[in-house]
TrEMBL record:
The keyword Transcription applies. Residues 8-66 form the HTH lacI-type domain. The keyword Transport does not apply. This is LacI family transcriptional regulator. It comes from Inquilinus limosus MP06.
Length: 240
């Protein structure tokens, strides 16, 4: 014996289970619709052979034939481990991991992206994005041009916190910063505060724009005096 392991194929599983290769493929892809109904006994026999042999489908091969491989990609524009921004990503990653486990997905963290101008890039010569069924994009500032390419290419993705149009609607999950900031201003006004300060940039990132809009709306509603202190949020700028 050579000692080298032999990779099992769907054809091997079909032979051991006494079914067709097409049946094995349907079981692996969890197909059970009207056009591809498989008897429960047959399905269980195929699954038993898979469990006994430890067979694992080749994800790259599944993608070549247009099937899902239950891999969920995660791409971050900044490094994840461990940096000063680690606490920023940790809650997101914990939530993604928990959801992936519930739906039977494995996570694929894309880390080979080269750093250009201090940031990673989704598209590069070794891009492996399409190994995953879809991808979650995380970053303090996402790249609009790359979002546009993903939209045009119809690649399934969700941007965390990004809403800006990029040649088409961007699928996103984000916080309602405007409403939350307005609510904080109302609370402060209800406590009798008449001079309220907004600390930090009022423009740039979408979240900053939203917070500033919510602050202004709340101040106007309360009839309070608004003060903007951008320098306290940026050590390079003095307060004004």
């Amino acid at each position: 014996m050579s000692g080298e392991s032999v990779r099992l194929t769907q054809r091997d599983i079909a032979r051991l289970a006494g079914v067709s290769q097409a049946t094995v493929s349907l079981v692996l892809n969890r197909r059970d619709d009207g056009s591809a109904r498989i008897p429960l006994e047959t399905r269980e026999r195929v699954l038993e052979v898979i469990r006994a042999t430890g067979y694992v489908a080749d994800p790259a091969a599944q993608k070549l034939v247009g099937r899902r491989n239950h891999l969920l990609g995660v791409f971050t524009y900044e490094p994840v481990f461990p940096t000063l921004q680690a606490d920023f990503y940790t809650p997101f990653l914990l939530g993604i991991e928990g959801a992936a486990e519930r739906f039977g997905y494995d996570l694929l963290l894309f880390t080979s992206a080269p750093v250009q101008d201090g940031r990673r890039r989704v598209f590069h010569e070794n891009n492996r994005l399409r190994l995953a069924d879809g991808c979650i994009l995380l970053g303090r500032t996402l790249d609009r041009d790359e979002l546009a390419r993903l939209v045009v290419g119809r690649y399934p993705f969700v941007a965390i916190g990004r809403r800006e149009d990029a040649g088409g609607p961007v699928p996103y999950v984000g916080a309602d910063y405007a409403t939350a900031t307005t609510a904080l201003v109302r609370q402060a006004a209800a406590l009798g505060h008449r001079r309220l300060a907004f600390i930090g940039p009022a423009a740039g990132a979408e979240s900053s724009d939203d917070r500033w809009a919510g602050f202004r709306a709340g101040v106007q509603e309360a009839g309070a005096e608004a003060i903007h202190e951008p320098g306290l949020g940026d050590p390079k700028k003095p307060p004004r």
